[in-house]
Structures are given as structure tokens and as C-alpha cells.
Amino acid sequence: MNMQTKTLLPLSCTLTALFLALSGPAGGAEKANTKTAKEVTAPKPSEVVAKVNDSAITRQEVDRAVKILLSQSKVQKPVPTDLLKKAETAAVNQLVSSEVLYQAGLKMDNKDLDKEVQTQIAQRKAQFPSTAEYDKALRETGLTEKDLNVLMRKEVVINNLLEKEVVTKVTVTDAEVKKFYDENNDKFKMEESARASHILIGADEKASAEDRKKAKEKAESIRKKISAGEDFATRAKSDSTCPSASRGGDLGFFAKGQMVPEFEKAAFALKPGEVSSVVETKFGYHIIKLEEKKPAGTVTFDEAKKNIEGYLKAQKTREGVNAYLEKLRKQSKIEMPKS
User: Mean pLDDT for the chain?
Assistant: First the structure.
């Protein structure tokens, strides 16, 4: 069973969320403070692409959003004209929706807003492997630290608004959960799966014959030490070149077809607790330890209940946000470019 259980608010319309996508792993008219998301100097009429209650969305903002959207989609250059037009339309709509929500959110009492903004920015920075990578992502999206601060402020305000007006009002009953389970039995059938840990000595297909030979010899040496009694997880943490090293090499559960053939064949041939010989794949040389196996079968209602509840709540939240946003848009004065 593969179901999305995390409740995600549709805040990908904000540029901060789009900016974070580049780390690789959904302007306001504030009455109490005239210096908000827009510069104090009003934009020239030629720079204004859309307006929300007289708050301008500029060509610079739209171009930046288009650039990030296309970057997310990994579109090959040169970008086709029709695709560029679609991206611009999507960007304008996202920015307008974000502004509508932001202006509504400013009417709430956003306690400790500045503190929350700084906390969120610090958390975003921590998602990058280094300060250099963070600075690079900023440059690639055309953002400054000041821009990011403004955009994060919008995101926090919007999150607070949607939490109060939508998320807290979403409920999922036991009857709804059971109905979903009964009507979607095919979603709860599981193939045979295995949970394995591995130690990877990386040497990809571009590595020289000499480098691959050295990698294999290192893997063989580690394999002998494990056979002699060394702890597998400790060795994985110290020697594996796979990101799973921090977890002692644990890859979690996977079904057939999810791993490269050589790895899969070796893993499923093992018994729980057994360690494989050195296995060669296009990534390098692996030592695999089978932790446990689960036979094919059907996930019981009790096992699936929590995931179903999360899935249905996320679905209702998305629907609730869309309905709430549509209501706010109807109450707002929105000037959009003519198509």
C-alpha cells in the first residue's frame, strides 16, 4: 500500500516553498504597517502584472516565479513558447492566490510573528548541506535575504490563517475510514517485501577499472571483518558511501521491482539475519544484510486505519483550502492580465 498521509497545505504557491525545492531530497497591503511585502516606492504601471485589492504583483515577481516553476519541472532549454505561456499563467494565479490569503491572514492576531519567521528561515537553511549551497539556491532563484524574509513572513501568516480557518475544522470519522477501506481493497494488497541494510562502496559506471577494483577489494575486506564478528551497522556508519550509512545502512522495506536487479536478487535470496557476499551493481559494491521479510498479503483494517485517516484528512484539507480560497477571491478586487 502506498498512500500519502502527511497533511500538506497548498503553500507551494509561495516562493519560499519553491525556493526550497532547489535544495534537492505544496506583497501585502498591511494596514498596521505600511512597509510590508512591497517596497515603499510604488512600482511603475508598466511593471504591474496583476493587483489584489490595489496591492501590485510585479513583472519581476512573476518572472522569478516562472523561473522557479520551470526549474522544478526540469524543462529543457530553450523553453517552448506555449509552455512558457502556461508557466506564466500558473505563476500569476499562484501569486494572486498567495496575496489573497496573505491579506486575509493579516487581519488575524499573528503573535510572535517576527520570531516565528526567523525560526522558519533557520529551519530552511538547515535543510541545505552547506551555507554555500544555500547561497547558491538564493542566487539561482533571484532572491536576496531580504526577499526571503518577506516571503517567509507571508508563508507564516498564510499557514496561521489556514490552520485556524480550515485545518482545525477538518474531521474524519471512523465510519469514513472504514468505508474507504472497504471500497478500496486493492490499495491494501501487499507484495512480498524485504527490509535490508547494506554497505555500499561506491564506484559508478564511469569509474576506471582500477578504481572499481579497489572498491571491490575494500568491500571484500569489510565483508570478511563482518563474518569474523564485527557489527554490520557500525561498519555501515563508518564505511558506506550511501546516505543510509547514518541509519546503519537500513533501507527500510522494499518490494520486488524497487531495487536494481542484482541487489534485489541477492536480498530476496537471503534469510533474515544472513549477510550476502559482495554484490556488484552500477552503483558499486554492496554487502547486504536481510533484516526481515514480509509475505504477500492484505493489510488489515487496524494496520491501515491510521494511514487512511491521514490520507482522508489531507484530502479534505485540500478541498477545504480550495473552497476557502475561492470564497476569499470572490470577496477581493482582483485585476488579472487579459489572455
Answer: 85
